[in-house]
């Protein structure tokens, strides 16, 4: 405590030096005076009295020094001196300081902001205890490495596995919630009883599901999220025990989840119900609609868990060959499922930001190098006056620290704003998919990263001039008018730095161009139909009022008729699933009249109304589309897509062929009546799967997607369309009102491509600017160093053209090397990020040549200005200069 | 000066504190003179060495200083003991007595090997 107080006083002493020195001088003076008085009283002569007093005091200067050192911290003292000097130096060279600080702050801002995203998404994406023990457990089929689990397979896996301390399942569910004003569609999730225990989440109010609460015999219960509790129940404690009606069934609310709860795969779900009822799919072992979450036992690796579940899957395959043939197992870390998609993008962005930071650092280092050349004399003089090399180095380090400190302050502030801005640019839907981004912020990891970057920058910035210092010879530098030789180190190192900069700029430009091209190709990928002027939304039909097929079909016909007759609507159709929403919802088919080995031939299966293809304006390639009259009373028919025809009927005419389920059961048999162009069912960057389209009138559904082709702006018609649906029956709920174009542009694939293309594009633009400025600086400096040489050349008869050639050749070599090495590096970089590219090769010749051309032009411009200055040198002035 | 002892490390602070305690607020010169006199002129003390020690004590909060006027009307800086200084003095004096007592036992004439 006492020590600390002393140290603090000493530290503060460094700032009140002047007053303390004066005070001490006065004290010594008074001391000597008192002693002299005494000596005089003792009878000494005045001169002797003074001499003795000073003698007894013993070395005034030594005492003053000892006193000073006790009064402050000597290291701090010189540090303050250095800082003051550094600040003065930086202020004197304002142009240099501002440029260096801005460049560095820019690099810091980009890298810190991107790192914050990486931190939020990749370092701690799962807000559960022991997240590394959580795995995603599903079945696996060749077309879907991560498929779904069937209910009975789940029960067997859960019973037979030896690797999970617990294993649970969930499945998405759209409920209709009956409210005072009608019905509303709400997102829900059905989970097995131990789901929250497996995650390690406990309700903050009420209770969790008890074991067995997910069985059909148990009463229907539901746990609600915190925001739903606040919004729908006003955050009142008596929400527990209340009964709500979900999809016509009363459910009792038993718990409220914590505010911090998030589960990325189903993050928009408001109601979490126990499985409880078994729908028709869950009564079949062959129907897969669950995702599994497991918690690994201690010491069990993901690989071991995969081996165990695969063994179980193989056993079930032997036991139930009909339903389980080819059904493997997949066990991957849960974090992989949640952030697997964004990882490559974030890492690419981090790489881009790091390159930008590198360019900025190189630029500043090169500036410092130039500056240290011009400070050669100053350093030499200080050395000659007795400054030790260590002391001189400390001066450079101090300057570097000061520079980096200012830049870091600016950079981190800017990074914080950039993070806020980027978060605001992310749409709400995307944010719901990436709840882990809520943890974004300047936390200690991000700040530690910023500190590392700053430290590295300090290292570079202090090493550069020190390198210069250690090589210089004091005597040469002191020599008045020494010239030429000093530039050698700079020419050897400084100019090569520009090659590095240009190479980095090439890499970023190529990356940006490839990503931009991928994005463009993605948006313009052939979707197999006309996506403009299509309005869509979903309709949920209450099973209670339309349970009978005839009622459901009548309703579907009425919906299509009423929507089609609206002004501005050309035609309308219904489908069980919208295009571009994702592959899946598959069927296993077997073609009649062919040998069958029991293999599962998996194809997308869609039920659509008769006007669906004409509404989408998909092309009929063969045969015919089905008619509205082809309902359950008529023979089963199906239209297949091109991919289907290619895969299963290569070189054959598919029209007129028959197919059915794996056993060719009579009620599953359908006739192929037509082939339609490949309508893109999966995401934009997904493969086209074989797809079959059956008449919706032959298997009516309670969940419908409406597609309306409009003659006017499709967006503006949406309210009229939903109003029409509610007029038909207020019990019909609608949701997801949007347009097909927006579906395409806002699809996750497009979103990811767009954001990475824009961000890397931004980095590339900045890199281009910085590297061209760097090149300009190098050439301009070189010209200024060679003014005399140029003067001599011109005096000896060199033409202006020759001077231009001299300077431009030098710049040309640098640019050439930069571009050439950059192109090589960018092919390597593009190969690394080929997973992010779509329809674009890593060595896209057009991109590479365009980038080379752009950079060459920019470089020519940057070197032309100093070359012009060199050529306009007046030889007489130049010879007199220096 | 050959037979005078040097002031060894750590004891100067104790002497200063004891002197101020005995005489009340006192200036640096007064403290130096008093230490010299108390030691019976056996200590060789450069008066100057007193000041860094005083500064250290002040930084540690054992003494406080104030400008004042001396008995013969000279401006001088007076040091006085703070409460923390009193505690420090008591503690260090006790330590010192222990140390000297122990040393005294070592140095006392023994009866030869037992």
Task: Map the helices and strands.
The complex is a heterodimer of chains A (882) and B (114).
Chain A: H1 2-13, H2 17-41, H3 46-57, H4 60-71, H5 74-92, H6 94-123, E1 134-140, E2 149-150, H7 151-160, E3 164-179, E4 182-191, H8 195-199, E5 205-206, E6 221-224, H9 226-233, E7 243-246, E8 249-256, E9 271-274, E10 288-296, H10 302-319, H11 321-324, E11 328-333, H12 334-339, H13 342-374, H14 376-384, H15 389-425, H16 428-433, H17 444-471, H18 474-478, H19 487-523, E12 534-540, H20 549-564, E13 569-575, E14 586-591, E15 601-608, H21 612-616, E16 620-623, E17 637-641, H22 642-648, E18 658-660, E19 670-676, E20 691-695, E21 703-710, H23 714-728, E22 733-739, H24 740-745, H25 748-785, H26 787-795, H27 800-832, H28 845-871, H29 875-880
Parallel strand pairs in A: 4-9, 6-8, 15-20, 17-19
Antiparallel strand pairs in A: 1-10, 1-11, 2-10, 3-4, 3-10, 5-8, 6-9, 7-8, 12-21, 12-22, 13-21, 14-15, 14-18, 16-19, 17-20, 18-19
Helix pairs in contact in A: 2-3, 2-4, 5-15, 6-13, 6-15, 6-17, 7-10, 13-17, 13-19, 13-25, 15-17, 19-25, 19-27, 19-28, 20-23, 25-28, 27-28
Chain B: E1 5-6, H1 11-23, E2 26-27, H2 28-38, E3 43-44, H3 50-59, E4 63-69, E5 75-81, H4 83-107
Parallel strand pairs in B: 1-3
Antiparallel strand pairs in B: 2-5, 4-5
Helix pairs in contact in B: 1-2, 1-4
Work out the number of β strands of chain B.
Answer: 5
What series of H and E elements makes up the topology of chain B?
Answer: EHEHEHEEH
Under CATH, the topology of chain B can be stated as Arc Repressor Mutant, subunit A
- Proportion of β residues of chain A? 15-25%
Tertiary shape of chain A: elongated
Question: How far apart, in Å, are the first and last alpha carbons of chain A?
Answer: 61 Å
Main sheet characteristics of chain A:
11 strands, mixed
Q: Helical stretch count of chain A? A: 29
Task: Describe the overall structure.
The complex is a heterodimer of chains A (882) and B (114). With 882 residues, chain A is of the alpha+beta class. Chain A is built from 29 helices and 22 strands. Chain A is elongated. Chain B has one domain: Orthogonal Bundle (Arc Repressor Mutant, subunit A). The model of chain B has no long low-confidence stretch (mean pLDDT 82). Chain B is α+β, with helices and mostly antiparallel strands and 114 residues long. In chain B, the strands form two sheets. A three-stranded antiparallel beta sheet of chain B has the order 2-5-4. Chains A and B meet through helix 1, helix 2 and helix 4 of A and helix 2, helix 3 and strand 5 of B.
